[in-house]
Amino acid sequence: QVNSKQGGSPCQERHVALLSPVGKIEISGCETGVHEIKLPRTSVLPSGAESSVTCEVCEGAEEMPEPLQQCTAWLRAYFCEPATTGSLPVPAFHHPLLQRDSFTRQVLWTLLNDVKFGEAVSYKQLADLAGNSRAARAVGGAMRSNPIPIIIPCHRVIRSSGDAGNYGGGQLLKEWLLSHEKLQKEKLAR
């Protein structure tokens, strides 16, 4: 249950499931914004990042509030037509972590706004971007608590050594997302 700001009444939470190339992604949210994106825990991923794969809402399509419509449209574009994500609105977020002012929120917004598709930054570089060069460990904590993965691209944060590092969706998924972005970016450059 997420309480809205006015009077603390609980919002009308809705759930949507999106069947994506990496499995079933569960999204929850309300009229105000997206609460959470849950990634599938998977041990097998499709080989190669074919953009011909489908990405469809498989549950909860009826009565979808606007933030969930925007979220599913954005994720569908991310997997199927990545070049179009830049022209789509990022859905509003309505998760307590993203409501109150904190270093975690600052790190997540910095990541969303400054680290573009196909790019990667180290935890230290992201700490610098967020305004505290000595907070690389805190950046790791912020990545672990990110309620909106993929849209807030915590998969783009890697170790200084170039190693992918940990990921809430698992190592395989992180590597798949990074390689999907790299392949799509190369396609666009041609």
Automatic annotation (TrEMBL):
<dbReference type="GO" id="GO:0005654">
    <property type="term" value="C:nucleoplasm"/>
</dbReference>
<dbReference type="GO" id="GO:0003908">
    <property type="term" value="F:methylated-DNA-[protein]-cysteine S-methyltransferase activity"/>
</dbReference>
<dbReference type="InterPro" id="IPR036631">
    <property type="entry name" value="MGMT_N_sf"/>
</dbReference>
<feature type="domain" description="Methylguanine DNA methyltransferase ribonuclease-like">
    <location>
        <begin position="20"/>
        <end position="91"/>
    </location>
</feature>
<keyword id="KW-0227">DNA damage</keyword>
<dbReference type="InterPro" id="IPR008332">
    <property type="entry name" value="MethylG_MeTrfase_N"/>
</dbReference>
<dbReference type="GO" id="GO:0032259">
    <property type="term" value="P:methylation"/>
</dbReference>
<dbReference type="InterPro" id="IPR014048">
    <property type="entry name" value="MethylDNA_cys_MeTrfase_DNA-bd"/>
</dbReference>
<dbReference type="InterPro" id="IPR001497">
    <property type="entry name" value="MethylDNA_cys_MeTrfase_AS"/>
</dbReference>
<dbReference type="Pfam" id="PF01035">
    <property type="entry name" value="DNA_binding_1"/>
</dbReference>
<keyword id="KW-0238">DNA-binding</keyword>
<protein>
    <recommendedName>
        <fullName>Methylated-DNA--protein-cysteine methyltransferase</fullName>
        <ecNumber>2.1.1.63</ecNumber>
    </recommendedName>
</protein>
<keyword id="KW-0234">DNA repair</keyword>
<keyword id="KW-0597">Phosphoprotein</keyword>
<dbReference type="InterPro" id="IPR036388">
    <property type="entry name" value="WH-like_DNA-bd_sf"/>
</dbReference>
<dbReference type="GO" id="GO:0003677">
    <property type="term" value="F:DNA binding"/>
</dbReference>
<keyword id="KW-0862">Zinc</keyword>
<keyword id="KW-0479">Metal-binding</keyword>
<keyword id="KW-0808">Transferase</keyword>
<keyword id="KW-0489">Methyltransferase</keyword>
<comment type="function">
    <text>Involved in the cellular defense against the biological effects of O6-methylguanine (O6-MeG) and O4-methylthymine (O4-MeT) in DNA. Repairs the methylated nucleobase in DNA by stoichiometrically transferring the methyl group to a cysteine residue in the enzyme. This is a suicide reaction: the enzyme is irreversibly inactivated.</text>
</comment>
<dbReference type="Pfam" id="PF02870">
    <property type="entry name" value="Methyltransf_1N"/>
</dbReference>
<feature type="domain" description="Methylated-DNA-[protein]-cysteine S-methyltransferase DNA binding">
    <location>
        <begin position="105"/>
        <end position="182"/>
    </location>
</feature>
<dbReference type="GO" id="GO:0006281">
    <property type="term" value="P:DNA repair"/>
</dbReference>
<keyword id="KW-0539">Nucleus</keyword>
<dbReference type="InterPro" id="IPR036217">
    <property type="entry name" value="MethylDNA_cys_MeTrfase_DNAb"/>
</dbReference>
<dbReference type="GO" id="GO:0046872">
    <property type="term" value="F:metal ion binding"/>
</dbReference>
<comment type="similarity">
    <text>Belongs to the MGMT family.</text>
</comment>
